[in-house]
Amino acid sequence: MDFEKLTPELLDSDQKELAEIIGWEAYQKLLVNYAGCRIYIKKPERNGKQNRDEIICQKFDGGNYKELAKEFRLSESAVRKILRNCSKK
């Protein structure tokens, strides 16, 4: 079916729900760009992870593992892992 002829009434229930949530115009843009593709939408807390990790790298002074762990509510080993990845960038 030609997407220009598509109307909300012709959509199945999942697609209709998506179109209602994001709006018909945005749904059409998704069709044009991503029809047939799988799209992964990150949870909000995952979107900020990279930014958090960059801040931890910037704040690291060579020995403040515990302080960073407390500030970012992480384990000290999680902070160390993040800092190991900082040097790889």
- The SSE order reads HHHHHH
**Number of helices in the DSSP assignment:** 6
Helical residue percent band: 55-70%
Beta-strand content estimate: under 5%
* Major pleated sheet: none
Net shape: rod-shaped
Q: Taking all residues together, what is the mean pLDDT?
A: 89
Structural domain tally? 2
Oligomer: single chain
Count every beta strand, where a strand is a DSSP E run of 2 or more residues. Answer: 0
Q: Please tell me how large the radius of gyration is.
A: 21 Å
- Low-confidence runs: none
Span between N and C termini? Answer: 46 Å
Q: Which structural class matches the secondary elements?
A: mainly alpha
Report on this model:
The protein has 6 helices and no strands. The protein is mainly α and 89 residues long. It folds into 2 domains: 3-34, no CATH class; 44-86. The longest helix is centred in the N-terminal third of the chain and has 11 residues, at 24-34. It starts with 12 loop residues before the first helix and ends with a helix. 4% of the residues are buried. The mean pLDDT is 89.
SSE diagram, text form:
Layout: H1 13-22, H2 24-34, H3 44-47, H4 49-59, H5 65-71, H6 76-86
Helix pairs in contact: 1-2, 4-6, 5-6
What is shown here, in short?
The protein folds into 2 domains: 3-34, no CATH class; 44-86. Helices cover 61% and strands 0% of the residues.
What keywords describe this structure?
rod-shaped, mainly alpha
